[in-house]
Design a protein that fits this description.
This protein is an alpha/beta fold. The chain is built from 18 helices and 24 strands. Strands 5, 6, 7, 13, 14, 15, 16 and 24 form an 8-stranded mixed sheet that branches. A 7-stranded mixed sheet has the order 11-10-18-21-22-17-23, with helices on both faces. A hairpin with a 4-residue loop joins strand 14 and strand 15. Helix 13 packs across helix 15. The radius of gyration is 26 Å and the shape is globular. This is Lycopene beta-cyclase.
Length: about 600
Amino acid sequence: MKCSAGLKMQRELQPFNGISQLAVGNPFQQKKYGRRTLLCRPQAVASRTQRIMESVSVSGEVGGAGGAYSYEALKRLDQIWSNICSTQEVVQEPQQVVSTVPSSFRSSDLANKSQGSYDVLVCGGTLGIFIATALCAKGLSVAIVERNVLKGREQEWNISRKELMELVEVGVLEEEDIDRATAAKFNPNRCGFERKGDIWVEDILNLGVSPVKLIEIVKKRFISLGGVIFEGCSVAGIDVYEDAAVLKLSEDKFLSSRLIIDAMGNFSPVVKQIRCGRKPDGVCLVVGTCARGFEKNSDSDVIYSSSSVKKVGNSKAQYFWEAFPAGSGPLDRTTYMFTYVEPQPGSPKLEELLEQYWDLMPEYQGVSLENLEILRVIYGIFPTYRESPLPAAFNRVLQFGDASGIQSPVSFGGFGSLTRHLGRLSSGIYEAMNGDYLESQDLSLLNPYMPNLSASWLFQRAMSAKKHTSVPEDFINELLYANFNCMQRLGDPVLRPFLQDVVQFGPLSKTLGLVMLTNPQILPSIFKQVGIPVLLDWSKHFVMLGYYTFLSTFADPVVRPLLNTLPSKMSFRWKRHLEAWKYGAGLDYKL
């Protein structure tokens, strides 16, 4: 797609108190035409991003991250991001979405006025459809409430077949459905470090899955199992009674259930209430495109690190890249540019990142922007919190997916973590429903502390550029190359879990030890980059990671045979503890 870089001025005659304004020329210049005086004022010149995006045909928005492609949606998201950056550390009294009603719903006047009653209501269908279908397959009555039409976005999700098989194991998909939903396959996959070297792997994030096809397959299965979908319905509030949770919709309509699952993503109003409007501890900003015109288009980049920190606006950013063949055509390729930042005044906006993307992406991919046809422009912000996963704050309300904070802080998008935890969560929720263990302290066991997730915070901090720092500008690139090179030397049992956002005690210990032995010169820069307080905090989670590994390896075999001898509720709780040890140590991952 060819885009002119020239500035275009528009001529408009607009009446203003009987005098027309001509929007060209010097802003202070006046010209007289007969009896009329024309005031000359400049109009705002469209940015390159605006010109490109407005020239691309986009379809309607869908739910979920990355479900909108228009320039107007970009500006809305940038405004949300600006508000996050400008807020105080703690904002009191956000909108109260969830309220507790200390009485019985069944004995109230509202009981017979509900538009439907279900075991489980899932708010947010893009990723919520997966947990809803898994619960439906276990025999529960489930309904989904979705603000938009429940359909997947056009842009593909990148994932490994191993992760998709998790959906087969819980009954959400048949194995042949994976092939039906897969739009692209590609190997090999590169971990590249500019001016340092490349590391090549196979079968890591090497499938491009069509969300449109995948969600349509799961949607049909959900309906065939008796599931119900309410599309075009927004959540107005939730009332938690002693015996039910009531989901309020618009126009005084409401649905009742025993449990409500919040799958409304990173910007869930329920999560905002629970976190009291606190700003995120870190954010991953992502921009990119799916474009046509790439002659070399057979392999992928899992991660490619720029050689040095770049200045953007009043801030600095370390850019990372991902690139994958797209399933829409042999010359179509998706490229993402992303960076990790702390939300603070002056942080780069998405449009500022896109302006740099148009210059850097052609250099990165060895193409000319003028020779590409932009099919869609992609962007998103992914906030993360140290206090994750998010425990249940209310009876009968549970966060799921991105809303729960279960995804890795270095990941953008929670589909991979969803597949990993879906079996654990669907079984736990089913047991909670059968035993009526729906108080907040019981539901919190389903989103427990996981030291491997908390330990990942050090990686995000190490990969975030600081505005004022004494470390070399190529430090992050050098640090990543040192770590990946050591992981490659240690072999697949170390490298492959890490590339799929799974941190384990043994592989992490070996990698850190080898890095310190082979690259001791970077240790002072690590201390400067992340800071002593962060390292001390990380050390606690590293010790807990080792402790959970010990418990899962040695205590689990002793406790598990005793579960059937325990009272029902105690058995439920101990099962959740065993799962927390296993998943919190990353031992659920098998090569």
